[in-house]
Please model this.
Amino acid sequence: MISSDGKTRDLITSRPGSGWDFNMHRHVYHDLEAKHGPHYTVYNRRFMCVYMDDLDTDEGYWLLRTKAACLHTGEWPIEIVGPDATKLMDLLFVNNVAKVKVGRCGYGIACFDDGGLLVDGVFARLEENRYWYVQADGDFINWARAHAKGMDVEIIGTYINVSQIQGPTSMDILEAAAKDGIPSPFGYFGSAWVDFGGQRVLITRTGYTNELGWEFYTEPHHDAHALWAHLEKAGAPHGMRMFGLDSMNIRRLEAGILNANSDFDETTTPYDVGLGGFVAMDKDDFIGKAALEKADKRQRLYGILCPEATPRIHGRVEWNGAVAGRVTAGAFSPYLQNGIGYVLMDSPEAGPGTEVRIEGNDGQMHPAMLAETPLYDKACEIPRGKLVDIPERP
Model:
């Protein structure tokens, strides 16, 4: 039975005792979240907070939009290092990895041989032949190891934890927290090593919100409690606190950011879901290239605007009186005052502006319209720092 029936969901909470979480991993700030009443989902066999008892989902959304919020994610950094690291990366990903300079980040999309999507994530090029690939939820590490046969490269599953500080005051927090202030350069998709309270930490100008923001990487050798105390002190004057994925999810839907294995999977190509622009057909062979050369280049995944209801995940989409697709994600946007989400159409015939009917969380069908993503800030100027947009609450 598929989860997300629009009425209930299954999450994890901590309780006394031991057992049956043997293969799960808590991030290093798990115990610090406890005071907020966290509830978790499992992501890469790691616990990631979905919501907190002391912060309403809408309040968390507005915290992200008007101040700053921190999510300790379940993303899994994998280190790929060695003389053939770049060669392997360019084989695994459809993007042109070799063009990404040291000190910069890239968006890595991996496909199966038939062009179906395996996983996505952000990688940081730390050295000429050393990368950290922060993968979304998915079976990637063994796929990478299998294709590295005969290459001079190591693929290491790390115990590094990734946290995101996002929102309009996030750069003020970085300025206060880093010993030497905001590093220069530190443009969009840049990376840098900074001193946080005497600890050397990698940060990247990335995130899952399309808000102004950055991420920091807590390694096993760090004093995690001291690191968080330092960042929390720097963030307090700017309104920062921890929050859950539910609040971030609203913003990522507004921003047109996809989720692996729900908005796309092995049945969809990058072209189907609007990621065709990342496919580097001009580079040497990569896994899935032959299939993608022949694939339909038209898009089937679009944003959705539904004034009457919140789209139900896995709900049906009707067009011209027949079932024509399904909802892959849904939420209510407090800013747009609209039900929003994504729909994957069965064919590429319908496009933005098409009027459809979708199933809502109430189990009823409602009028809706396909929309281009992002739903606003089309040029993505907010995360690049070119547009300061602190919305007023309706």
Observations:
- The chain has eight helices and 19 strands.
- The chain has a mean pLDDT of 96.
- The longest helix spans residues 224-235.
